[in-house]
Structure formats: C-alpha cells, structure tokens
Predict the 3D structure of the following.
Amino acid sequence: MSADRTWPMLPIHFAEERARQNEREEWERFQQVATLAGAPISLDEARQFTEALERRNDYSP
C-alpha cells in the first residue's frame, strides 16, 4: 500500500489514539481519588465508569 493512500487516515488515527489516552488518564485519576479516599474500586464501579465515558463520548460535539 502506498503512503499517499494511508495519509488521510493518519489524523483520524492520532485523534482516536489521543481519545484513548485521555480515557486512560481519566481512569487513572479516578483510581487515585478513590484510593486516596480509602475506597476500593469494585468491578461494578469500573464498569459504571467505563459506561459513563462511553456515553459521554457518544454525545460529545
């Protein structure tokens, strides 16, 4: 595949990667706050947090 055919996809790839990085950073902050508060994070809380991120991403401008 030639580079000129993949070039238009690069900005999309970088935007998607940045969105994933933002989600990872937000999850890390969530974990840090919960840990500092002395609250262990359950799998249900993790699922709810992930679902909230997905809903926010679905409706973001």
